[in-house]
Amino acid sequence: MYRIPLKNSGQETRLFRSRVTVAVILAGLLVLILVGRLGYLEVVRHGHYATLARNNRISPVPIPPARGLILDRNGIVLAEDIPVFTLQVMPDRVRDMKHLLARLKTLIALNKQDLRDFDRRLQQHRPFQDVTLRAHLSEAEAAHVAVNLMRLPGVTLRARLRRYYPLGGLAVDAIGYVSHINQAEEQGPDATRYFGFHHMGQLGVERSYQKDLMGRIGFKDVEMNAAGRAVKVLKRIAPRAGRNLYLNIDAQMQAIGEQMLDNRPGSIVAIDPRSGAVLTFVSSPIYDPNPFVDGIREKAYRKLASNPNAPLNNRALNGLYPPGSTIKPFFAYAALQTKWFNPDSTYTCPGYWHLPHNGHLFHCWKPMGMGPVDLETAIEESCDVYFYHLAFKQGIDRMTRYLTYFGFGHRTGIDLPGESRGLVPTRAWRRARHRPWYPGQTVITGIGQGPLLVTPVQLADAVAAIANDGVRMRPEVVRGVENPVTGAVRYVRPFAYPAVPRRRKKSLSVLIRDMTQVVMGPHGTARGIDWDHVLPYTAAGKTGTAQLWNAIPGYNGKHIHSDALFIAFAPVSHPRIALAVIVEHAGFGALAAAPIARALMNFYLLGHVHVRKVNQTNGRVLPVGTHP
Amino acid sequence: MTNYERWHIDRPLFHALLALAATSLFVLYSAGGNNLLFALGDALRLAVGFVVMFAAAQVSPETYRKWSVPLFGGGVLALALVLAIGVVRFGARRWIAFGPLSIQPSEFMKLAVPMMLAWYFSRRSLPPRLTQVIIAALIMLIPVLLIAKEPDLGTAVIVLLSGVIVLFLAGMSWRTIAVVVLAAVAAAPVLWAHMHHYQRQRIYILFHPEADPLGAGYHAIQGMIAVGSGGIFGQGWLHSSQANLHFLPDSTTDFAFAVFCQEFGFFGDLALLALYLFIIYRGLRIAFAAQDSYSRLLAASLSVLFFFDVFINMGMVSGILPVVGVPLPILSYGGTSLLIIMADLGILMSIHGHRRLVN
């Protein structure tokens, strides 16, 4: 056997041992470093890394709650959440996309737009993420796909809740609609509140009662693997469904109003004068809010926006109308509070009126004049000269003060967002624009022309104040908020504004008597309402015809068809409904607006409608007792 | 004469290895996604490893000494072959394919270089003279450069380390060591300039793993998360979320230790470390008891190298060393590396088992 000679064995062994010792010491140091590091990571920083590991695998997934229902005063559903199905494809799991699309085409409708959108999304998709092929599958289509899901690898059906307005555009201007949360809301001060929500109310009570309707978001902690696929649900915090809204609006009455306006531009607001409950809230033409929920297509939106009748404008809330003669009762009321005014004394109407020391003529609507008129006649037949005179005698300050008492020029406080103030012209208002106040403006303001502008809500609320013994109630669209779990309803408490000042006791009853004559009297401008003398109740009202001169560009300076207005309340003895009806460009108020008011009052008070056919082209009010 | 002695098996070393093998089975079953088939593969791999160890133990140290040079020469030839006809995987040419099997000659050099240098120094009186040190350094630089060219910087460093260990244990003078260290420091910028982009990235990421959490820093961060979330007592076997949900890449190979940490915690780490240190201690005992210069040098070098394998892997997982592809001996799933390690340990046993033949 070959043997290795141990050369100088003792010295070599010593050298070797010293070197091994050095190596062991070095290794010992390294082990200490390693143990120290492991201890640091596992003991000192354990909390930090445990959190990181948790965040790695657990992601909270929001569960959106069902939004509260919106129901009319009788429980008819106006807005609800319905399940909709979205067809999604995970491209990474599809072997042959063309083949898959061809198969899907046999099951559901896929048009070119869908495929184009899908192709675009496909370009941007991240690995192992679903790409939407089509949203809003019908239930039948969803069923077709669901049955064949096994044979369609990579295809998933996702169900979610979507806001749906079953009656389409009915009361859309009161209800509003929900649509995608915009960026400002998502990143605004309320960002945390909307976390996990994709939609929020944009208009109407959907907006103003957003907090009640939205409910509380739920969460589930989902364990995810590194590829981002959910493995299992670890924890679930159930969402709390939103509260239901009961509206004061009567859907049937609303439908009657909308149908009678028949998409002509106009507005109807009906209020229960005792509580301020808004019974009908029409802004015509109406539009279907459903396309807005998931984002309306640009083309459809442009069509709506460019419609000359502007269906997207909320006329009832924001429409600014010259009130015309419907403002006369309020000026009469103002005059009735003075000592010098005697409602029974007469003033002769020659058909025109001119300012003292000034030649400018103001005409009455009846060119030949009405002869001697007292307040009753002036209101019943809507004598302009009487009110020119009254305005001149009262002065603009007194007139505007009383208009303010009745709520004009201020927001009524209705529970809808974005209400307009209207415009009550005062000297201060003119001064702010560096213009003097001319007496002639006082005179035309006296018949509701000039710069005076009111909204239909203001008009309805003001006439409701007359009906409610001078106490104006805040209009409320929402009747109550229902907790969907307990069923407990929190009713909205009626809110009364300070009563309109009354210095003479009988003044209001005098005014109401005169307004009753408008509808019931032999010469009343709205006597046609009760042409067949069948109304079992008495109604009071006032017609108005607002002359428009240059409301539309292009018609500048030319006289265009006037707006028809009508305000009314009934029954006179204990009013339960007060309303304002405006039909734009419809001419004489009694013709276009009053029948709508009659239908609504009939429906509300009697439960049925007798609609009188009015010959619109003729434009003549049929005399009492004649039958068409 | 017990069976252990008859077959030249060192009993404490053997038991420690069995314990490690069992640990590997448990950890890899968990890290491999509770896959029994995968665990079976691991068992088969370990079985093959033990066979190699057993076979290596039967060969006398004398034979190893005689075969040192041919083995080294063959290894270098294989490395040259890799560069010529090797298979490219993951962007590096490291493998030679034999049908379905593929071997990694660079792994083999971890054994061949210490053998070669131990053979070289065993024929000379120690401490070596400077010329001898230079010759030895040149010998070991051949495979190191070849491996670095593949490129496989991690293995090249380990192979270089294996040679340096032999040089150090052989008694290379401290003055030379100081000069080499200074030269290395001076050469560092030059090396940096010649590194591949991803290699630089790894070293950069070592200091700033947060700079690229989803790219180059991903391994380091997920490894540290796994280790740190283990805590003192660990999450328990099969409860490594980092591995089960595939956040941890290479959870069965280079990062198996991270899975172990998350499941068994700090105390588990200490126990595992103790097991490894025991194996190294046993190796050094064998070296001390060795009766000739070659066996002594080889046994000590292999033991110290074994330590560095363990340290580099654990250091890499716990974020004190850059992420270089070094598996944890025995525990990690890896064919060639396991076979080489088991061969190392077989040689240690052979040195111990055959020592009576001398004298």
List the helices and strands and how they pair.
The complex is a heterodimer of chains A (628) and B (359).
Chain A: H1 9-44, H2 46-57, E1 58-63, E2 70-71, E3 77-89, H3 97-107, H4 112-124, E4 131-137, H5 139-148, E5 155-164, H6 172-175, E6 178-180, H7 183-187, E7 199-201, H8 204-208, H9 210-214, E8 218-224, E9 230-237, E10 244-247, H10 251-261, E11 266-272, E12 277-284, H11 290-293, H12 298-305, H13 315-318, H14 328-336, E13 347-349, E14 352-354, E15 361-363, E16 371-373, H15 375-380, H16 384-394, H17 396-405, H18 427-432, H19 439-445, H20 456-467, E17 478-482, E18 489-491, H21 507-520, E19 540-548, E20 560-570, E21 577-583, H22 589-592, H23 594-606
Helix pairs in contact in A: 10-23, 14-16, 14-17, 14-21, 16-19
Chain B: H1 3-6, H2 11-31, H3 36-58, H4 61-85, E1 87-89, E2 92-98, E3 101-103, H5 105-122, H6 130-149, H7 153-170, H8 174-194, H9 197-207, H10 218-230, H11 241-244, H12 256-289, H13 293-317, H14 335-353
